[in-house]
């Protein structure tokens, strides 16, 4: 059986985000033995879902595995899946839709890895049980999204002295409040995690507009800031695991 895979991402105007998706698709194709692996966007910029689906349907495949490439379940994922399935009636190629990239141990490992790397970069040699963590997420009105980020926070609390989260927009606490709350715990070191998939505008600009002044006002002893998730072998393996879940079930 000839299989193809399509990543459906939210979308970003930043070229870095597309470059990351191109690398992910290449690795997924190689490791998963797909005829091809492509990406498309729900919104913001093309290629949109219709463009991605049409490109896939021009290939000689029997099935198309569609991966909602989102960190949170919620309205965006539902919108992406709804849009994708409009095209199932127009083809005999079987569509298989996976779960999004949420509520999985791999994400705990990735966040822990980003924290460890940031600590090494800043020459922090404290044991993890003495380190505080603040995870910055996007924010959403969907309660399932909040459950998803709480899964990450709860996982970090098992390893680190303190762990909490704050949000770029929509939800509270906002970034300024997150820094204030973290400071109340008198951390020796605070590691701030950028819990975002891509180096888009949120990571490059938006977060820092709130984070920098909040840090300047704070009296934190030492702060380390992680990289976003980006391209990582663990993330490649998670995409493939999600794909295999639906492929093996059908």
Q: Which percent bin holds the helix content?
A: 40-55%
Count of alpha and pi helical runs: 8
**Structural category:** alpha/beta
Q: Report the count of strand segments.
A: 8
Task: Summarize the structure in words.
The protein is an alpha/beta fold. The protein has two domains: 117 residues, 3-Layer(aba) Sandwich (Rossmann fold), CATH 3.40.50.1400; 121 residues, Rossmann fold (3-Layer(aba) Sandwich). The protein is 45% helix and 17% strand. It contains eight helices and eight strands. The protein has a four-stranded parallel beta sheet, with helices on both faces. A four-stranded parallel beta sheet has the order 6-5-7-8, with helices on both faces. Helix 1 packs across helix 8. The model has no long low-confidence stretch (mean pLDDT 95).
Provide keyphrases for this structure.
alpha/beta; Rossmann fold; 2 domains; about 250 residues; four-stranded parallel beta sheet; 8 strands
